[in-house]
Model the fold of this input.
Amino acid sequence: MTTTLLDVNVLNNYINGEWIDVERTTPVINPATGEAVVNVPLSTKESVDDAVAAAKVAQKEWALVPAPQRAEVLYQVGIIMKERKEHLSKLLTMENGKVLEEARGEVQEGIDMAFYMAGEGRRLFGQTTPAELKDKFAMSVRAPIGVVGIITPWNFPIAIATWKSFPAIIAGNAVVWKPATETPIMAYELAKIYEEAGLPKGIINVVFGSGSTVGDAMVQHNDIRVISFTGSNETGSHIAGECGRQLKKVSLEMGGKNAVIVMDDADLNLAVEGILWSAFGTSGQRCTACSRVIVHENVKEELEKRLLEEMRNLSIGNGMDEAVKVGPIINEAGIEKIKKYIEIGKNEGAKLLAGGHELTDGTYANGNYFAPTLFTDATVDMRIAQEEIFGPVVSLIPVKSFEEAIEVNNSVTYGLSSSIFTKDVNQVFKAQRDLDTGIVYVNAGTTGAEIHLPFGGSKGTGNGHRDSGVQALDVFTEWKAIYVDYSGKLQRAQIDVD
Ligand code: NAP
Done:
């Protein structure tokens, strides 16, 4: 192994507060260098069974701990994460490839989420409401569900885990977490932090291993009553089908085909900055990445010119180098998928203005790098304008009017994020009303969510749930209605009303 950043060569599962060795492992590869950095377990169904059994016992006690006391642990988690921010960020860059600046931003999201959800320990609001009958009290409260399963992707290995595990834990649940095999280091580090923060044994359990074995065992397990999943639509639809058959609650956050709209009155310099950041940041491997630019025909040529100029200044390389703005692609399969879409785009008749190829020479030889790519004259029906590519590829689609821009934005099956650059306040308000995505930005790119707002998408991006924000609590709690009759007689609702 090649790193001094980690204190181990092999990661262990974390089950019932113990670090459990697993015989079969696979190497984790740094996508910037091709080097193996640690080995990760390939656990079996038995590890899931152990984790669920421990979680089930521990949760019963945890649910009885007053929520403000549960919150003390989350505050402590936030404090430790803050102290270790730089270390965590470097490890994140090493396993995922995103540039250090973005890794720091992702870790900060986790810190923010810790303090925000700890605050929920003193809220977790329910409702009181008048009862229909005399001498009767009515209220609703949130109740924990029990053991929850969280399954996370490689592209935000720590932020997404905090969006899910913090609300689950503050609400009084126990968690079994399967991180992506590509990026397990953040899970190992977060489990250590939970342990140091004093979270009781069995409340967080990390089981490393493949989706088809560990993930599937979680989905099938009778004692896991909620699955919170973030990942691809293919996996999400499969999980939803399985959960549906078992009447198991499932929250899905999946893909996106996000667009920036540039109107003819836009500040073009600002629009260019927003497009570059949201299209090529994390090498386009964000669910909210800008993959389409819907541009008013009056400013199309000027926008193309300025984008091309600025794209020349993007430094591509190992994200550990502070000067680098675009890091590697997660793996060879990711590169192959992007290459496939470049060919599709060319064959469909879109014009390739920049990039369109893998980078393999010199410093790029051992990593997975792809040149930032710009297509223009794409049309709404093209596959490159409809399907998620998950790489540094953006397609310009010219339109003639505001109404057409909205229509093109809404033409895709996904509904995660959208953005509009304009100075016209009427267009701003119409856009925020008519764009059919779960997140809308005005005069900013398609990325940049804040943790105290609901995160997620409409249409094919999800199934109506949200990660982060107070709304995340809805995934991990059941509403319980409570009626207290203090009349001393049997009062029948709807019948004994005077
Ligand atoms: P993925 O292949 O669907 O994997 C996501 C997670 O599911 C991984 O932990 C994976 O495990 C696991 N998994 C795979 N097959 C499974 C199965 N049969 N049963 C249970 N779990 C299974 O997605 P990805 O490539 O990691 O992530 C990229 C996708 O995530 C993109 O589509 C992106 O848009 C989406 N995403 C969405 C959001 C959002 O909030 N909307 C945020 C980030 C990413 P292994 O990989 O370890 O096998």
Remarks:
- The chain has two domains: 13-254+462-481, 258-442.
